[in-house]
Structure formats: C-alpha cells, structure tokens
Amino acid sequence: MYEDNVLKDLWCIHILLICTLRGFIHQLWSSYNNMFFLTRNRWIKQQGVDFKQIDDEWDWDNFIILQAMLASMACLIFPSLNTLPLWNLKGFIASLLLHVTISEPLYYWAHRIFHKPYLFNHYHSLHHSSPVPHPFTAGHATPLEHLVLCTVIGIPITGSILMGYGSTAMIYGHVLVFDFVRCLGHSNAEVVPHEVFNKLPLLRYFIYTPTYHSLHRTEMETNFCLFMPLFDALGNTLNTKSLELHKKITSNSGKNRRVPDFVFLAHVVDIMSAMHTPFALRSFASTPFCMRMFLLPFWPLTFMIMLVMWGWSKTFLVSFYNLRGRLHQTWVVPRFGFQGINKHIEEAILRADRLGVKVISLAALNKNEALNGGGTLFVNKHPELKVRVVHGNTLTAAVILNEFSKDIKEVFLTGATSKLGRATALYLCRKRVRVLMLTSSTERFQKILKEAPVDCQNYLVQVTKYQAAQNCKTWIVGKWITPWEQSWAPSGTHFHQFVVPPILPIRRDCTYGDLAAMRLPPDVEGLGSCEYTMERGVVHACHAGGVVHQLEGWSHHEVGAIDVDRIDLVWEAALKHGLKPISSVNN
Fold this sequence. Notes:
This protein is an alpha/beta fold. The protein has 3 domains: 1-45 and 53-252, no CATH class; 262-392 and 534-578, no CATH class; 395-518, 3-Layer(aba) Sandwich (Rossmann fold). It is built from 24 helices and 15 strands. It is found in: Membrane. It comes from Gossypium australe. Residues 97-237 form the Fatty acid hydroxylase domain.
C-alpha cells in the first residue's frame, strides 16, 4: 500500500510476486535434485549434500531480498515504471540481445577477475566452498557478488525500458528465465541429453549444462561463462572435457549405477511426517521432525499424493550416505500405517537381492510380528536369498538394557510378551533383576518363563494391573500407556521406552527416555537429513543394527525372536565400529 491511496501503484505487488515465483523456481529445482529415485542415474557428483553444506547455504535466498530492495528503490525513484504496458514483443527481443552482447561478456570477465587470488580468497571462495552443486548453491555468495549479479541481470531490463520497449511481461520473463537457467547449471543431475548436441552441434556454444558448470568447480581456470560457452571458447577457457563428460554421464545412465551395501527399509508414519523428506523441503528435513504450522496448507496436497502412491507407487530411494567406502541407502515403502505393506516389503527385499545388496534392515512396521513374524515370513518363503534380512531388534534391546544403572533391582515392563519385551525380561532376570511383567496372558508369560534359566525364573513376576508398579521407579514402556496409567508411577520414575509413537511426557516429577537410537560414527559422509524425530547423525537402533550387521560381515539373517545370547555381542560390535548410544553422547 502506498501513501493514502490503496493500490495506487502496483509495483510493490509485482515485486512480491516476482520474489515468490523466484523462490518457487529454486524450490522446484531443489525438489527435483533431491528426488534421488529419479536422478541417481544421472548424478554428476556421487556424494550427498551434508548438514554442513545445508547450514552454509541456509540463507541462499538473500540475493532475492537484496534485489527486491533495489527494485523497490528503482520504482520509487522512477515513478514511470508503474506505467509500463503489460506486453511488448520488442522488449523481449531487446532484452535478449542486450543479455547476449553485454550481460554475458560482462559476467564472463567479472567471473575471471573474481578468480584472481585476492578476490577469490576474500569473496568468491565462499561460493566454491559447497562441495556438491545444488540449485541453492547458486545463491550462496557474498554481497559484492550479488551486487555484480544485480548489474548483470538488470542491464537487459533497464536497456529495454530506456529504448521504449519495456513491459511488465518482459521483466517477469527475463528474471524468471534467468533464475531457471542458473538453477539448471547448479544442478547435480544432468538434464540435457547429449543427443541434442549431436543433432545441433552449434547449440553447445549457446547453452551450458550442469556437467559443463560442474567442471568449473573442479578445474577452476575453465568454464567461466554465465550461460553461453561461446565466451569461454572466445576467451580460450573452454574445458575440452566438457562434451566428453556430458556424453558419458547421459549415455551411461543407469549402466554404472553403484549398488548399495546396506539398505534401511523405512515406511511413512503419517501424512504430516511424509513432508519430512529432502525432496519436499531440504532445510526442514535436515532438522528433527516436529509439527510446524507452515505444514498445514500442504496437508491436502500431501493427502492427494498419498492416494496416488497407494495406487501406483513402488518402494523408492529417499536418502543415502557413505560410511567407510560403503554406500548406505534408505528406501521407503510408499504405504502409511493403516495400509497393507507386506507385498511391498517382499518386493523390496527381492529387488535388493537382485541388485546385490548385502544387508537390508526393516523399520518398525515393516517387521511387525503380526504382519510377517519379524521378517521370518520372507526368509522362509525365499530360502535362496543372498541379501541378509535384519530386524535390528537385538541392538534395540541392547541400547535399552545398557541405559540401566548396574545397581538396579526391579523394573516394571509393559508390552512384556512382545519380541523386545521378551528379550528384555530374559536378559534382566539373568542379571538377577526382578521384572514385573504386565500381561493378562498367563500362557504367554509361562512360555517366556520356561525360556529363563531355572535359577532365574523367580525373578520374572506376572502382574495384570498398573497398581503393582506403584513403588517401582524404573518403567520400561513397550506398549503405549495413557496419562492415567502413568499416574501409578511413583515420583522420580524414569520411563524407558521402545514404543512408537513415544508416550506423552505429562509427569513433571518423572523423566522420560528417548526411543532407542545410536549416533553414527563421525566419519559418515554425505548425510543431510534427519531420521524422523532423531537428532542429526542419529538413527533408530534397528537402523544401526543393520549397519553393524553389514560392517561385521555377518552371514546370518536376524529375523524372528531375539537371540538373548547375542545382545552383548551386538552391543560390543556397535561400540567397536564407533556407534554411540544417545545417552552417552548427551552426557
């Protein structure tokens, strides 16, 4: 709004709309780059964008704000800009000519100057500090460079207006096309097929490609151009490898794809958390998931995508990282908790087996006892499997059990007859810890009791009510409990838990443990997204269990009931390979 008259001038609305569209273009390119299931066969750099690069590029959109401020000043100084016509074809032609004849060579020489030692070390090195190209990398630069870019993008617009050919459509078109092509060049996935240059050889001098620009980031004395390699050819700075590398990446698409050593097979929890993926919002996915108000407008769209996934989608790659030369990937089964997923889990296991994956670890719902017996169904159905199927619950149990102090005498256990509940009870009774097992099924309790050593069976006690634990300050929650049920715990109780979702922390006089998880070793590379509510670099214990299985090279399947005798062995192996429990990390 300007002075007293509502909508006297529309420049403010145009600037706001242009800024929104510019951000949207960058976000679309970011989403495309992070759709690894679409782009992995045409990656230029095989490493992932890690948390450091994401944090460094967090304010990538500063240049949009800067240019909006400069545009606002121009509109206030030159009121005639508000009287531009909507459309003028001559303006498009003029801006294109000015871009080719002035902006392109100006940027080329300015870029070469920025590579001189002083300017590079004090300014341009920031832009080159991003190891993996990404559309947001285009905006990762110093204010001086942004001002130079303002000049480059502003000359064709200003010149067209001064010639009398300016129009609103020309300004929109020039700015948005400029951003689109910049994002294309900073993409880590090649999008231009090499056949285009075979049919139109001269075209390679008039439009660059992601491969072309990537060579500038590795061999910095070449490929300086803005969008047109013609000026590199004229300046004798065109990298001779450009065309050959471009052809290699596009023609070998899918042929030289690296096979992952380990796969964590995850699943979607709910509609809101489905937006916690790198291809939705990279910055949001790089922080632990929690409900945010800005997600609500996207709920209907996410719901529609869920319906499409339910009908047509297959298991897909969502994230990856490298650990000691081994490629670890996370695949997602495109089914929500209320949909049948057994068929898709089986297909994912068979696909992993065909590819040559060594270990595949199953997330919570994917190893549900009622669905597939903790993975037993698939192993029995396909005895010829070479991939090792792992539920990871042995390490989950180890993480929970190692949270306890050595002088503990009594615990209260809910979900006592579940897979993890059984293993926890049998392990603790061997340590002469009294376990109050909450279960109404005497048959299940007796079955577990018979597995315990004879001299330890008296440490397992069946209880049927929460009141039995009103004097016990150590609760192990394996089945979700209500606030009323929590009220039976005495003051000072600590709630250990392996239930998903976690219980509500309503007792201020009690403490609540996190879900069983472990921090990956510090030498992990290319990790840039958080696993659900986990902190950066932290994964669920079942994920970590699969990692340990792969690093150790164990040849057995880990499915079905937990082998209590292996709990300490798996725990020691995890620590040996540099994984750390969250409790020790936080302490």
